[in-house]
Amino acid sequence: MNILRVDCGAGRLIFGDLEMPCTIGRGGACPAADKQEGDGCTPLGLWPIRGVLLRPGKVVASGVRLPWRWVRAQDGWSDDIADPAYNRPVRLPRAFSAESLIRSDDAYDVIIVLGHNDAPPVSGQGSAIFLHLSEGRPTAGCVAVDRADMLRLLPLLSPGDAMDIVR
C-alpha cells in the first residue's frame, strides 16, 4: 500500500517524490468523528482509495491502474441525510438531494473516490469526500489539486493505496 499524504497546514499533497499544492475544505480540517454533512470540513484520517470516475472527452484513461469508469449524465452522489443511499453513487433525477457528478466547471473531470464514511455510511457524517481538480478556491470538504498535478499523479496510484489527511 502506498500513501498519499495531505498536509492540511502546509496545503501540500505528497506521494513518493511528488509534492504539489492542494486545497481542502472551506471549513478547514476536522477530526472524522466531528465531520457533519455540509460543514465544509475535510476529515482527518487514513482513507482508502476506492476508485476513479473520469469525464468523457475531458481526460484520457490510458495508464490508470485503479478501478475506473466514465461518468454519465445521470450520475450523482447522495448527500441527503434522509436518503437510504446516503454517501453512495445514485442515478439522477432522484427524490432525495444528490450532487451531480457532471459539473459546469472542470473540477469533476477526474474524481478519486475516498473511502470516508462508507463502510457502512452513517447518515450525516459526511458524503462525497473526493480528490478532484482544483477550482481555485476551497472545496466543500474534498481535497483538490491542479489538473497537471492530477494527471501526473493518477497513473502512479494502484489498488490498495490510501490517502492520509493530517493537520
UniProtKB/TrEMBL annotation:
Keyword Cell wall biogenesis/degradation: yes
The entry's keywords: Cell shape, Cell wall biogenesis/degradation, Peptidoglycan synthesis
Domain L,D-TPase catalytic: 1-166
GO molecular function annotation: transferase activity
GO biological process: cell wall organization; peptidoglycan biosynthetic process; regulation of cell shape
Family annotation (PROSITE patterns): LD_TPASE
Presence of the UniProt keyword Cell wall biogenesis/degradation in the record: yes
Known pathway: Cell wall biogenesis; peptidoglycan biosynthesis
Protein name: L,D-transpeptidase family protein
